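Following up on my earlier thread - several people asked me to post the actual chain instead of describing it. Fair enough. Here it is, all 690 residues.
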Amino acid sequence: MDMKEHEKMQHDMPEMDHHHMNHDHMNMEHSDMGMDMEHGDMMNHGGHMMHMGNMSQKLKVAIGIMIPLLLISPIAGFTLIKFSGSEFLQLLLGSVIFFYCGTPFFTGAKGELQSRKPAMMMLITMGISVAYVYSVYATIMMLTGLDKTAMNFWFELSTLIVIMLIGHLIEMRAIMGAGDALKDLASLVPKKAHLKSGEDVELSDLKVGDILLVKENEKIPADGEIMGTALLDESMITGESRLVNKTTGDNIYGGSLNQNTAFEMKVTTLGKDSFLSQVAELVRNAQAQKSNLENMADRVAGYLFWAALIVGTASLIFWTMTANFSFALLLAVSVFVIACPHALGLAVPLVVSRLTTISSKNGLLIQNRTALEGINNIKYALMDKTGTLTDGKFIVRETVSFVEDLDVLQVMAAIESGSTHPIALSIVQAAGKLKLKAENIENQPSIGLTGAVDGVKYQIANLKWLHENEVEIDEVKIKEFIDLGLTVSILLADGKALGFVALGDSPKADALDFIKGLKNYGIVPVMLTGDNHGTAEKVSAALGISEFRAELKPEDKAEIVKSYQAKGGVLFIGDGVNDSPALATADIGFAIGAGTSVAINTADVVLVNSNPSDVLDMIGIAKRMLRKMKQNLWFGAGYNIIAIPVAAGILYPSLHLMIDPLVAAILMSASTVVVSINAMGLKYQKTDKK
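Reply from S.P.:
Thanks for posting it. Predicted structure:
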């Protein structure tokens, strides 16, 4: 990436909010990217943060209290252990579990109330509060002798809180790790920099214009200009695997790895303007959009909250006026208890837990299940050609020389010998033992290499560069190989084409079935490649892909994702740091497991086996996941359509049919069992890719 491209990226990318940046000299670990990680184990409900460790502690306490309550509380009219003073112990234990273990729900309910968006937390709070108040009332009635038959719900209260805590812990674990990509980006730069004077300083103390020393095998601490020559590994930044030769005045980027030559550099960019900060901002923005998606269960809980509140209050008023307060209170409590989302709270987390478990056993790591909820909206699948659809193993198929007695392959191998790019490695391997030595090797981004062999300066370029610079070549001869879907690298000297090598990258064995599988799901495959248009057209035709983009630069991918999103949902399959903005921007991002850690942590799903065909399995199980979630949500809340009116006493005048709090608690528990069984029915099935 040259300076113009970098400047364009600065212009196109959204700037970081200055609220998150204390000053421009912040390094990656002290920027808002780093600060976000301090809360990586937290979850937001209703505008309030809940720490996962605190919730785990409350769950342990709740389970510890639930066990003795099981033994001493009346359940379905039976009590396992009864002794003098057991009512007091029930009251004490029930109060502890309510006021201590229920605080996450109270906090969440407060946030929902302040935002005027009642949802799951307010519904849970209402249910456990009514159960607590009624249990206190029943206990007092029994202790005072006013009503020896009064039935409390201490055990039901404890199980409700335990199950709700478990459900939310499952959900939190499922969505944790969204910030790991930003951690990995921060880790690309070193913690300190060496000033030319010999002093080591924190990155936050650097200033534009500082002269730094970068030692052998060290990472570059900041963006700048090199003062000297060096060979750099920029693969973690650009995604390009070949080593890049840098000379005085060339731009270098923080996070790149210096090879074996120490050099000095001048700092030109810090803070929010640095390359990595801008990549991080793209990732952060895209992830924030996903995390703001409203959960289906919360929406249902919001409706259920208002239904229970209105019906329960109306029932209390109506039966107080037509019967008596005790009878009215009994029915009102039944309404609130039966509406409490025992099942609704687990409807989504249980399916998520099942999904995560069975997927991980089959090489699919889910990092953002919220994104998977949009699987039915996916219309396009964007993917790289090399490494995704093809093996990425270029083999020299043919060598053509236009000059007699010139060993084109040996000359090109000498120049390519310092590169780790797949094409370069293939050329060197095909040449066998190197007979020539190249000097003054220089990289030309998006073009090729230059180097001197036996005093002659040669250039290796692609066909696009030749056409742009009007260099003559035997088009008929070269077209023979392009029509075969091969890539050509051309050797030049003094502006004349001397010959070329034709290389082929074979499609993966299951690539064709993979594309057919996508089409069976109604998803349009789109191939992305930096190869020339002819090669891209040939490969896409062989695989049955009607849409492709060729001659792309790494930074083009995120914009292409956005252009397709204007027409429908997009999933993206990629690897490399340069893919992280596209992975985060796409509606669903799949990272190849063999790719970089930044890309893996940015993606919604990681393909551990590096097999793109596993995407089809994920699509299939995600669709089944959605069906299970919707079934659970319908059952978890749907039975209330009948149960709440009956609990409110609508059938009492005509049939003398009512639901007392005990029956309400049993129905509530039964719905939880049904939801759990349905969630466990989610199975992993290999998708038929043909």
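The chain has 27 helices and 24 strands. That should answer part of your original question.
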